[in-house]
Amino acid sequence: MCGRYVVSKELSELKEIFDAEAPIEFATLSYNLAPTQSAPILVERELEGVPTREIHPARFGLIPHWAKDVPDPLFNARIETVLEKPSFKDSALHKRCVVPASGYFEWDQQKQPHFIHADPLICFAGIYSFWRDPAKAANDPSRWVLSFSILTKVASPSLSWVHERSPVLLSEDGVEAWLAPDYETTPDLLEALASESDEVAESLEHFPVSKAVGKVSENSKELISPISF
User: Which partner for 26 in 57, 69, 92, 158 could form a disulfide, CB atoms 3.0-4.6 Å apart?
Assistant: First the structure.
């Protein structure tokens, strides 16, 4: 699963890496991103017939468009059932995004956190949703909430030592396929991404880090420094 991760890149760096635009300026740097917090997501849209990539701030924890109020954070979506679960189905079919991360934290059976990472970035397969807050006025620009979930799968052999599940990791080709806005998601695509994720996982590095990362209030570069025993 993936409930805590890191974005150590500024918005300007993300724009350059993905050759993307950002309709609004916002802070992206965080060493301990947790559910309900704001994080950058990458989407692709057709603007006047031209595919355009955009980076937007979004709530980590999907809110289904039909929800009457904000549910407990739906921050992970199982790839095996994402096309079936009511909370995820509509987003999984049409609203695909890439979630950029410098790495993520996972806890082993001894409750020891590890930082799993790659340079310059890891790309998670994500889905997003727009939710209309019924408590806000029709002319309130904040009435629309953009939110997202990260897809997860059974952990690959190279990651199963730390947890039985892991995020779905995208290669460069996988990013292209996942972002393309002109088709519906199919089981075949999800199966291919899951298989490819195992290959991407083999290139990741990891090391143990401070247990301070378990506190949401902690957010400093020291959280991704290796520790020794």
Answer: 57
